């Protein structure tokens, strides 16, 4: 940390133009105290703040001008070419994320100075919302809450790692909040790790994982080092599962369900398997198919209705049970399968299950256990039918978890298996020559001639056009 960086703010400290100063509110009682220390042990109040030369006033004016410039962007877009439009989008996305990070630092500063407590707002969330309204815009309650939670933690000495990451723009607010909450869950089962180490580990995860990935990792760690704890937690969740519905003013019925991980995994896997886009016959030309125009939400609703209708027919005796149309693929290591130690993960959704729940589902539901070894390499794939094509697709799904092109989040049910090295160029139908791609990116890969390097651990795309072998290479 350089001498110009005062580090994360702590109770009783206020930075005015980069220099530590006094509590501007003049009320030391409003200064938060680090958890675990008494008010008398908190940092003593410094002398009143003094005017310090700096760029603060200039930066504030630049922020006002930038905000005004944003309002002019929509009317000027026609003046930009494709390159300019792409460049503008890149800058705007950077501003979108960075503005939230900096705003959180501002909230932390206001909280430490006592500005929040002395305002008419009852909480930091209200203080944030009030400023959004003053700016002529709105902030989602969830976003305001995340900003408030991270801002409050920012002033705690124990969270210096998170404070540094937010101040320097190295993590999103959602990941920062997830790291804070999940560190407290993991700490009891990893007593040998310091808080800084745990926070740093969560913050250095692949940003593409997002806050959901952080939460999934927490369940994995607990399953690995305290499997009984995870099983007990999930058992409590299963006991309080709920499903309710009510009629909305429009006449629609809204379903609300809270399910434990194991129950949710079965339901989500079944719905995802039936909700992929399906080409439909054209009205004028029945022999010609057109794209499925249903929204993702509509496809999921149709899938749920189809599942419930089929089950109702079986229960009424109007149909014979023929097994589930959808199969949940669950990965686990050999120890989890044979001894019930560790965890399992649902391939389609990423849900983490305790080993006991996974073993139970393997008996009661259409669940295929996939035994892993080494760097998540499939060693054995259980299957209901001994067809090589289905077994291969299962192995590819297990490794890729969905579309493999960078930035795409399409799940396996919306993807196809692509031959990385085409068959006409001598490519084999095998795991190391296969990659999952959604329909859009499958067409894109062939149109641009993209090639990938495939290993047992994953697929790595070379986005240089023209690398794929052509028919003349056969």
Automatic annotation (TrEMBL):
- Which positions, given as ranges, span the membrane? none
What are the boundaries of the region Disordered?
1-49
Q: Which residues form the HNH nuclease domain?
A: 391-443
Q: Name one GO molecular function term.
A: endonuclease activity
- InterPro entries, alphabetically? DUF222 (IPR003870), HNH_nuc (IPR003615)
Leader sequence residues: none
User: Short name of one Pfam family for this protein?
Assistant: DUF222
Q: Which UniProt keywords apply?
A: Endonuclease, Hydrolase, Nuclease
Q: Locations of Low complexity compositional bias?
A: 1-18, 25-49
Recorded superkingdom = Bacteria
* Name recorded for this polypeptide: HNH endonuclease
Write down the species. Flexivirga caeni
């Amino acid at each position: 940390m350089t001498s110009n960086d005062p580090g994360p703010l702590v109770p009783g400290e206020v930075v005015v133009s980069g220099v530590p100063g006094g509590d501007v509110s003049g009320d030391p009682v409003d200064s938060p105290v680090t958890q675990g220390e008494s008010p008398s042990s908190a940092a003593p109040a410094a002398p009143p703040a003094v005017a310090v030369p700096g760029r603060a006033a200039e930066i504030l004016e630049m922020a006002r001008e930038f905000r005004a410039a944003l309002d002019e962007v929509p009317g000027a877009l026609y003046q930009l070419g494709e390159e300019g439009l792409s460049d503008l989008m890149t800058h705007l996305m950077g501003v979108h994320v960075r503005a939230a990070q900096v705003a959180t630092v501002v909230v932390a500063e206001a909280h430490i100075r006592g500005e929040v407590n002395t305002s008419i707002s009852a909480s930091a969330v209200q203080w944030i919302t009030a400023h959004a309204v003053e700016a002529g815009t709105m902030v989602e309650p969830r976003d305001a809450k995340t900003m408030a939670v991270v801002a409050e933690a920012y002033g705690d000495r124990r969270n210096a790692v998170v404070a540094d990451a937010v101040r320097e723009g190295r993590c999103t607010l959602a990941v920062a909040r997830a790291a804070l909450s999940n560190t407290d869950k993991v700490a009891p089962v990893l007593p040998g790790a310091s808080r800084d180490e745990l926070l740093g580990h969560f913050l250095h995860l692949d940003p593409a994982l997002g806050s959901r990935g952080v939460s999934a990792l927490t369940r994995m760690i607990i399953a690995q080092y305290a499997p009984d704890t995870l099983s007990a937690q999930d058992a409590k969740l299963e006991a309080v599962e709920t499903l309710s519905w009510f009629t909305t003013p429009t006449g629609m019925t809204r379903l609300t369900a809270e399910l434990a991980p194991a129950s949710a995994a079965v339901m989500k896997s079944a719905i995802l398997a039936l909700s992929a886009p399906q080409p439909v016959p054209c009205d004028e030309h029945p022999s010609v198919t057109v794209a499925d125009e249903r929204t993702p939400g509509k496809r999921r609703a149709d899938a749920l209705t189809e599942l419930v209708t089929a089950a109702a027919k079986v229960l009424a005796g109007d149909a014979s049970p023929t097994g589930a149309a959808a199969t949940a693929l669950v990965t686990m290591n050999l120890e989890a399968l044979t001894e019930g130690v560790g965890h399992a993960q649902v391939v389609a959704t990423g849900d983490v299950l305790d080993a006991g729940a996974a073993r139970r589902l393997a008996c009661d539901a259409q669940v295929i256990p996939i035994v892993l070894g080494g760097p998540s390499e499939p060693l054995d794939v259980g299957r209901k039918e001994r067809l090589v094509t289905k077994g291969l697709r299962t192995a590819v799904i297990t490794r890729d978890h969905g579309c493999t092109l960078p930035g795409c989040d399409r799940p396996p049910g919306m993807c196809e298996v692509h031959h990385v090295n085409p068959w006409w160029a001598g490519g084999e139908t095998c795991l190391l020559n296969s990659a999952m791609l959604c329909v859009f990116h499958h067409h894109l890969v062939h149109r641009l001639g993209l090639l990938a390097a495939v290993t047992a651990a994953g697929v790595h795309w070379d986005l240089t056009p023209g690398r794929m072998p052509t028919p003349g290479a056969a």
